[in-house]
């Protein structure tokens, strides 16, 4: 069991009642189509029993966060972290960080060297968490990876994702970088603005301030951001560029291969 400064306790879950609580927590967070839940109790039971990773973060007796992962290819010694969520009431309390540190310890004890997962590149708090707090780095831009997810968070948006890799045999933490040249900007009207790439140096790629709210209030603009980030960030990564950091105000910092 891991206890952190958040005053939550994180532990591995195996009992059926605990796994049902994880299912109920995820259902409350995502509010998915009943035919397409993030997990089921039966799946969690099978994963837990077969040695995969299922953990929960508790505030007293209340489950406030959970994380689920399974092994990648044995030759890569990698854990794929499939889904993690924190209740609305427990956000901004570092519960997600506590879950990730527990997952890291669990994986290291089993001889693994890396954890991979996907996240929506438009959600800037997750980008900051992944790249700056943890020190993960993106491997690949995945277009509409899960198809239409049919839940309250994703709505009707396409499910583009960044696949990231966290080298857990290295120190935790990344850098909050910045770049003066801009490849994708924010307009005064909140819409994305593509700009011409400079010849040299790192470039910054903007994301919207709160895409989850934007999907509910102006889906057309949210879609413009999806397509713009796909074209600019996805295009840069496809050409061999690397995300080297993230600015808290909502900018990916990207170094281009072979460009000084």
TrEMBL record:
Stretches assigned to the N-acetyltransferase domain: 8-152
UniProt-listed Pfam families: Acetyltransf_1 (PF00583)
Source domain of life: Bacteria
InterPro entries: Acyl_CoA_acyltransferase (IPR016181), GNAT_dom (IPR000182), GNAT_N_AcTrfase_prd (IPR038764)
Cited PANTHER family: GCN5-RELATED N-ACETYLTRANSFERASE, N-ACETYLTRANSFERASE DOMAIN-CONTAINING PROTEIN
Name used for this protein in its record: N-acetyltransferase domain-containing protein
Naturally occurring in which organism (per UniProt): Kribbella yunnanensis
